[in-house]
């Protein structure tokens, strides 16, 4: 990892870190030198060579240690003038080692091995030319000292040749160190780049997971949470800002269906030895949270293929959101269907109806009257089907009329009984006074028509066999609720999942759109329509259709209410 010898000071942290390591190594070498001189005298004196003055050598070693310590302190605590500090450290090394070489007897002292310290530092901290410049200084000192000793007759002729070999070796070592340092610098830059890319990718992944509508929980085999996102806490009914990491899901009693399903999946996968995905649909809510109603969750368990730490991922998904997406697809399909066939159906249907009326006027035979009646009923049924499909496909925004539910329901019931020729007393109406709702009147009329018509279809026809009860529920924030009951056999459990699906019907004369349209109108007015159970005063329960109106003033707001009654999904 090289830096420029001249120019701006480097601000790269690895360069300073390398300089710190280099200074620390110098302190260790200087301290070892001081200890060796103090313990063994002047060990650098060659055998049979000039005797060295022990106290002077010790004093020189102490000076070198002090300089090394000072330079190390500067490298660690003074983050300025990088190149000046590098030059100072290399100059101290060259000066001290060269002095030891000259005073210690030249090549025979073995001091030239210490030149590896400044050469290594220069190779790591300086560019190639500067590193070889430092090496050339060391080689020149080595050659000059050997040549002077040769002139003085203190050494053999072979020493010059050895000095040349040592110089060449120092140049080769410098080149090798420089090559290795360049490769290390390239690898370090690549590692830093990959590290930044990895950190960026992790941040993106965290951001994506945090913004996901799907809940994500990472747990161990004991259901202890390692990580989770906001959507998971919301789907579990918890405070979005609560700290769930570190807690065990099995400690929440309301999450027992989820934890039991996870335990069964874990046991089955371990027994099979193959990890795969598994899907369940528990209704799980956490205790001590705001009620969010009968929201259903779909959980999917998975284990990362390369995970060796025993971590598992639980994906949570709101079934309501999935159904809403499916509903949008159905609406789009219905819109295309309506646009393509409504006109084509209505024209021939009107012709058939008109021909049937003319035929009924001309004939008096009972059989023919019966046949014309069948034609008229089925044309009316087909026309009603087209009208219903058009009404839903248009998806017009509600007007949000202010309605006093008591007078409105009484007026509607009088019109309904008159038009349908229902016997008096069959339909009972019970409305608490002062129930004000915000709802488009035409939508509410159609909803009541569909629900009561459906109830009459299955009711016994006795007095009060169909009941409409409008009340304000104190346990539901004072919202207005409208119940529609009948004394019929009720809805079978297997039919409840598709109760509000379009074109689904259990009656031979039904179109399968009445309940679907009623719920669509409720959703358009920020209300809910479900099939639930009402708790009576005597402790019993009664099943029927329930319209749960939005609070007054919430039309147009993003408000959805859910019931703590029987789920129909």
On the 0 to 100 scale, the average pLDDT is: 76
Rg: 46 Å
First CA to last CA: what distance? 65 Å
SS field, number of helical segments? 13
Task: State which percent range the strand residues make up.
Answer: 5-15%
Query: How are the strands ordered across the major sheet?
Result: 2-1-5-4-3
Number of domains: 4
* Helix percentage range: 40-55%
Shape category: rod-shaped
**Low-confidence runs (pLDDT<50, min 5 residues)?**
1-11, 43-51, 278-295, 554-569
- What class do helices, strands and sheet pairing give? alpha+beta
Order of helices and strands: HHHHHHEEHHEEEHHEHEEHEEHEE
Biggest sheet, open or closed, and with what strands and sense? 5 strands, antiparallel
Q: Would you count the extended β strands for me?
A: 12
Give a written overview of the molecule:
With 569 residues, this protein is an alpha+beta fold. It folds into four domains: 13-198, no CATH class; 213-321, PAS domain (Beta-Lactamase), CATH 3.30.450.20; 323-394, Helix Hairpins (Orthogonal Bundle); 402-548, 2-Layer Sandwich (Heat Shock Protein 90), CATH 3.30.565. The chain contains 13 helices and twelve strands. It has helices spanning 13-40, 54-77, 82-103, 116-125, 128-151, 158-211, 230-235, 256-272, 319-362, 366-394, 405-420, 441-458, 514-524; strands spanning 215-219, 225-228, 278-280, 297-302, 312-318, 402-404, 427-431, 436-438, 466-473, 479-486, 528-535, 541-548. The strands form three sheets. Strands 2-1-5-4-3 form a five-stranded antiparallel sheet. It has a five-stranded mixed sheet with strand order 7-9-10-12-11. Strand 9 (466-473) and strand 10 (479-486) form a beta hairpin. Helix 3 (82-103) runs parallel beside helix 5 (128-151) and helix 4 (116-125) runs parallel beside helix 6 (158-211).
